[in-house]
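Lab meeting, item 3. Inverse folding demo.
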């Protein structure tokens, strides 16, 4: 952690280890009745990975020859013909536009022969909109998901326990269905597109060690990164084909990566030991929807303990602490605060986890706002705005700007506060969806601001 951040955190800690209650939480909050137009992202700004190709080759193999469950995949599979994508069901216009943008990126950045077709034309990949309630009944733990060999929800509903949906039985990919829920925010739909379309085209695994990828269940990256596009480009390299073994792919990867990622020829490959299954299980139990609150907290504490026993100081240790902080925030705000502080220190030590650090900064800035320390809020928020915008996370950007607006108001910088608040609400309409949810989120953050006599 930098000295500057350490001093900010210390100031907040001295002022308050818990958000104030009572009069602060009950004060009236003014939220604009007329919301600005929705803001959307335009040109992507994904950067290429900076680590050595030898490390990326290991990532490729671990992503492509194993499922998230740990089961091994014996043969490499991909689409061997041009890929057509169709969008069916009650899809909003914004989602169609996001899909067009993503398909263009896959063509231009990953060199995949992929295109959109009309909903009534047969396609290799079908993206179907399904009611959120139907999806929750069928697969409660998934926000969205992808299955092989099918092209519609009705077929999935009839065959969801069939071996036909087992990815390990594929010889090549020919037909895939992606199911996206209706009734969620534009950002949630877009995030589903990126993650599930990437999985339908390429890797089926997630790796917690990856700091620059959507192929990581920590969900910090929600749109395809430069690393992800490189992995997909390698997947569709002409040197590879469906049916290859891990050894055959491994033999060809060095030349492929040297060709498509020449800057990765140099550099030292950092060897990261795989996370033990006990830690993965603890994280999944902590974040899963089925366990009680107490069991989830216990699982998060177990993940932190395992991370310490492993001697980790990387993003996995930081994520364990972040998960614990989020879970204990309602019941033990002091433990939440100290967990966030330690997590922030680990994330700030790694240049590849600036986006991750922004999520922690959001939590710490809420403590600073509740303590009435407006300058600490700005010191925590401002360094992260660009990284969050580059990552296209409208929901997080909106919250950071909402907190920033409250801090500026406390400092009497009214015009700047109004500008930040208007910008935040525009991003919130994309990140959170309905106007009611946007107003509720803005009111929650505004309610953290203490009365003038309680401010630092």
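The presenter then showed the designed sequence:
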């Amino acid at each position: 952690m930098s000295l500057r951040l350490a001093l900010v955190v210390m100031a907040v800690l001295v002022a308050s280890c818990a958000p104030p209650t009572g009069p602060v939480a009950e004060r009236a909050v003014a939220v604009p009745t007329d919301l600005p137009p929705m803001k959307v992202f335009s040109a992507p700004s994904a950067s290429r990975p900076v680590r050595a190709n030898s490390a990326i080759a290991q990532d490729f193999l671990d992503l492509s020859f194993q499922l998230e469950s740990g089961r091994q995949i014996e043969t490499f599979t991909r689409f061997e013909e041009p890929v057509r994508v169709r969008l069916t069901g009650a899809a909003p216009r914004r989602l169609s536009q996001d899909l067009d943008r993503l398909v263009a990126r896959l063509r231009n950045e990953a060199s995949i022969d992929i295109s959109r077709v009309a909903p009534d034309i047969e396609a290799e990949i079908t993206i179907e909109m399904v009611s959120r309630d139907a999806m929750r009944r069928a697969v409660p733990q998934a926000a969205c998901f992808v299955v092989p060999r099918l092209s519609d929800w009705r077929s999935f509903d009839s065959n969801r326990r069939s071996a036909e949906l087992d990815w390990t039985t594929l010889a090549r990919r020919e037909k895939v269905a992606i199911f996206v829920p209706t009734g969620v925010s534009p950002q949630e739909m877009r995030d589903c597109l990126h993650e599930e379309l990437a999985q339908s085209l390429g890797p089926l695994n997630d790796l917690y060690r990856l700091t620059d990828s959507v192929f990581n269940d920590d969900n910090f990256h929600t749109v395809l990164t430069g690393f992800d596009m490189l992995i997909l480009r390698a997947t569709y390299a002409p040197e590879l084909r469906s049916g290859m073994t891990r050894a055959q792919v491994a033999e060809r990867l060095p030349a492929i990566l040297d060709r498509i990622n020449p800057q990765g020829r140099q550099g030292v490959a950092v060897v990261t030991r795989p996370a033990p299954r006990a830690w993965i299980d603890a994280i999944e139990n902590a974040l899963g929807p089925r366990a009680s609150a107490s069991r989830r907290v216990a699982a998060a504490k177990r993940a932190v303990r395992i991370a310490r026993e492993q001697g980790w100081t990387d993003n996995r240790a930081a994520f364990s602490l972040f998960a614990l902080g989020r879970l204990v925030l309602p019941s033990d705000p002091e433990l939440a605060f100290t967990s966030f502080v330690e997590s922030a220190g680990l994330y700030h030590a790694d240049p590849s986890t600036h986006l991750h650090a922004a999520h922690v900064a959001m939590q710490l800035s809420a403590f600073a706002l509740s303590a009435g320390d407006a300058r600490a809020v700005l010191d925590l928020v401002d360094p992260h705005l660009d990284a969050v915008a580059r990552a296209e996370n409208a929901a997080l950007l909106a919250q950071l700007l909402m907190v920033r607006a409250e801090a500026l108001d406390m400092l009497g910088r009214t015009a700047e506060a109004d500008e930040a608040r208007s910008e935040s609400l525009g991003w919130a309409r994309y990140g959170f969806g309905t106007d009611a949810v946007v107003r509720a989120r803005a009111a929650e953050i505004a309610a953290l601001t203490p009365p003038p006599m309680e401010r630092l």
